[in-house]
From TrEMBL:
PANTHER family attached to this UniProt entry: PROTEASOME MATURATION PROTEIN (PTHR12828:SF3), PROTEASOME MATURATION PROTEIN UMP1 (PTHR12828)
Keywords: Chaperone
Any GO BP: proteasome assembly
Protein name as it appears in the record: POMP protein
Superkingdom to which the source organism belongs: Eukaryota
UniProt lineage: Eukaryota, Metazoa, Chordata, Craniata, Vertebrata
Organism of derivation: Piaya cayana
Family designation: Belongs to the POMP/UMP1 family.
Pfam families recorded: UMP1 (PF05348)
One GO cellular component term noted in the UniProt record for this chain: nucleus
Length: 140
């Protein structure tokens, strides 16, 4: 009788193939957050895309100016510093202020909209701290 059940198990599909993928997958709120239709829509105004990429465009202009004035080494050094500073973060469930990045860009003493009303995209992420840390480290 045990041979009969083993032959039946051999013909079954492994459980790994039942993982959530494709059009019928379940949405993981812990890792991906709430779904929003607004994120999938096109920009409603032509300037909206420009405003979203304002800091990127400003950095590019500053790097071009710096390259013309001081040579290729200056923007490359600054880009390496930006990259190193962006990697320093707090734990995934805590808000990171990125004060070092603001200092490198020269925005440390400027008061902006996100300082007063807080940018919703940088708000504190609520969740299970242990699960979020394990996911960030690749243990899950």
């Amino acid at each position: 009788n045990s041979r009969g059940t083993s032959s039946l198990l051999k013909d079954t599909i492994p459980l790994t193939e039942f993982s959530a993928s494709g059009p019928f997958e379940g949405h993981d709120l812990l890792r991906r957050g709430f779904t929003s239709v607004k994120n999938e829509l096109m920009p409603s105004h032509p300037l909206e895309l420009s405003e979203k990429n304002f800091q990127l465009n400003q950095d590019k202009t500053n790097f071009d100016t710096l390259r013309n004035i001081q040579g290729i080494h200056a923007p490359l050094k600054l880009q390496m510093e930006f990259r190193a500073v962006k990697q320093v973060q707090r734990l995934p469930f805590l808000h990171s202020s990125n004060i070092a990045l603001d200092t490198l860009r020269g925005n440390a003493e400027c008061i902006g909209f996100e300082d007063i009303l807080n940018d919703p995209s940088q708000s504190e992420v609520m969740g299970e701290p242990h699960m979020m840390m394990e996911y960030k480290l690749g243990l899950l």
